[in-house]
Write a structure and sequence with these properties.
Layout (H helix, E strand, L loop, with lengths): L9 E5 L4 H12 L3 E6 L2 H13 L3 E6 L5 H14 L5 E4 L14 H29 L2 E6 L12 H21 L4 E8 L8 H4 L2 H10 L8 H11 L11 E4 L7
Parallel strand pairs: 1-2, 1-4, 2-3, 4-5, 5-6, 6-7
Helix pairs in contact: 1-8, 3-4, 4-5
Length: 252
């Protein structure tokens, strides 16, 4: 995506301290966007920002809990002071909980709902007014192939990711008149920290690889390139949909 320019755009990426969030933040900055990275781990955030700056990009980090409505408003204000009005929002922060339903506590259920659903709602509600004022915007919600299919012990994750896909579709229709697109990205098996337990388990890893037609885990940079395109002018007719990037997993 080296020919795509996001100069003069301001992006906010949640869950940007590691994994796919980090990769997307780095890719957007590499395309010229000013990027605010939002997460809770200051050490990791600082490391990512320093790396972006070392490559000539523009980035700041903000420590915040995306489920906190007050924190979302503070992030908005800090971004405006640093870069201006945010016109690209990537709701990437998320958690997983691999447990049989009878072992999942109500607190754990509420936690996954708060992070995976309330977080994107809170951040979107906060940043949409600025995008409406610009009459331009891009919102990407990181859904999952678990929005479309599922596996045992994924009740919390599948429920929230399916809900996020519905949220994406509804918000896309609501914001289309303002030239604001809203889309999902549904990653399949990517080699990230979240999937490290599976990758490091020989039996589970071989089972996963056998289910991926291309025969490998996804590379994080493949998500970065996709995000850059979806945030660009070239993707203005793409809205209300979900881009599945899974090596053919759900095509079986």
């Amino acid at each position: 995506m080296s020919t795509v320019s996001l100069e003069n755009h301001v992006a906010v990426v949640t869950g940007a301290s590691k994994g796919l969030g980090r990769e997307m933040a780095e890719a957007l900055a590499g395309a010229g966007a000013k990027v605010a990275l939002v997460a809770r781990n200051e050490e990791l955030l600082s490391e990512v920002v320093q790396g972006i700056r070392a490559r000539g990009g523009t980035a700041e980090y903000i420590m915040a809990d995306v489920t906190d409505e007050t924190a979302a408003a503070e992030v908005d204000q800090m971004v405006k002071e640093a870069f201006g009005v945010c016109d690209i929002l990537i709701n990437n922060a998320g958690i997983n909980n691999r447990k049989p339903i009878e072992e999942m506590s109500l607190d754990e259920w509420h936690e996954i709902l708060e992070v995976n659903l309330t977080g994107p709602f809170s951040m979107s509600r906060t940043f949409v007014p600025g995008m409406k004022g610009l009459r331009w915007g891009r919102i990407i919600n990181m859904t999952s192939i678990m929005s479309h299919v599922s596996l045992p012990n994924r009740t919390g994750y599948s429920t929230t990711k399916s809900g996020l896909l519905g949220f994406t579709r509804a918000l896309a229709l609501e914001l289309a008149p303002y030239n604001i697109t809203v889309n999902g990205i549904s990653p399949g098996p990517f080699a990230t920290e979240m999937n490290r337990p599976l990758i490091e388990d020989p039996d589970k890893n071989s089972q996963f690889l056998a289910s991926i037609p291309v025969g490998r885990w996804g590379k994080v940079e493949e998500i970065g390139s996709l995000a850059v395109y979806m945030c660009s002018e070239a993707a203005g007719f793409l809205t209300g949909t979900d881009v599945v990037i899974d090596g053919g997993w759900t095509a079986r």
